[in-house]
User: Fold this.
Amino acid sequence: MKKIFPSVVENTLIADNIFKLVLEDSFPHDEFKPGKFLHVKCSKGLDPLLRRPMSICDISDDERYLTVLYRKEGRGTTLLSEYQAGEKIDILAPLGNNFELPSEYENGENSTGDFQKQCLTKKVLLIGGGIGVPPLYYLGRKLKAAGHSIVSILGFNAAKDVFYENEFKSLGEVFVTTVDGSYGMKGFVTDALAGIENAEIEDCGPSSRTAHNRTSSRLRRTNDRSVLQVHEDHEDDENAEIEDCGPSSRTAHNRTSSRLRRTNDRSVLQVHEDHEDDENAEIEDCEPSYDVMYSCGPKSMLKALQSRISSDKLAYMSLEERMGCGVGACLACVCNYNEGFERDKNYSRVCTEGPVYKLHEISL
Ligand SMILES: Cc1cc2nc3c(=O)[nH]c(=O)nc-3n(C[C@H](O)[C@H](O)[C@H](O)COP(=O)(O)OP(=O)(O)OC[C@H]3O[C@@H](n4cnc5c(N)ncnc54)[C@H](O)[C@@H]3O)c2cc1C
Ligand code: FES
Assistant:
């Protein structure tokens, strides 16, 4: 960790209250790893005194440019949004731990106990919510460069909040969800997750998905059995329609099996969700649709993922806890380990032991 004073190259609005800040300095990839963060002095004076933690969204291949995406939220980020090209910013970096990459478990370099040998087939799921999306992009670029295949689920409140969809499309398949349904699938990231979990992919023809496809969705529910049909249509299809034909049968205990069928022009994803107590449930034995999941987003999203994803899955989350010092001294960022995950103590400092944890490691 060191103090640096990179120059601002760009500081522009890319979505509602979301800014893209590009900094120029030297950012070696082997130090500035995906998952680590910067502690940014947002003001040019003493107020506010505390730095603000920001994730690394990307670093250019030549290691000269680092991108941060931030939401203008309060005093600190408002001051940050006022920086002009050419000005220098006072930053402590890189801080915290980093995401482990599948190749690192395989080589045993970074591996920890049970998780060492699980990731062999390298299908990666990235799940980001709101301003938790940025760190997953740099991670995704590294994963893609290492040959892994990537599916991303990006969740936002509304169309006006959506950002970096095309950037994620350059990594692989992308599902966007919005809470109000104004763009992509209506709902939460967990709704999209239900659709791709245990997906069995039958490629019936040349894939029609391109970086320019837009996803529209049709959700039909009946009393006993839920059927989620996701029609992925080309950009010119404006007709997304949601039909709710009965009480929702989704619970955290639902079991999900899915089949994804592709035809030349149109992809249809059918998800049959059956109750656990349904004796006649027909569960198709499918290949799991991902080997490792990485997530970052609001606590409510991470909590939903904890209850949705089994603890024996290889899954990680990055926490965006409020911070003070950023270097382990003030304990402002402390959170508790879940039982069975404690280390030498039962609490963890997100700024130093985190921000990246196994999905079930921390009590949220
Ligand atoms: C490791 C890490 C990485 C982060 N990466 C990013 C990033 O890439 N982009 C980004 O925009 N933000 C990121 N954040 C969150 C960011 O640090 C806060 O949004 C920022 O500190 C807000 O500062 P402010 O002075 O503008 O707002 P404040 O005036 O301090 O707060 C404004 C409002 O935001 C709420 N708030 C502030 N911080 C947090 C937080 N951490 N979690 C939830 N609510 C909060 C406050 O309660 C208040 O309601 C990250 C946080 C952590 C810990
Ligand atoms: S922010 Fe001070 S200990 Fe983590």
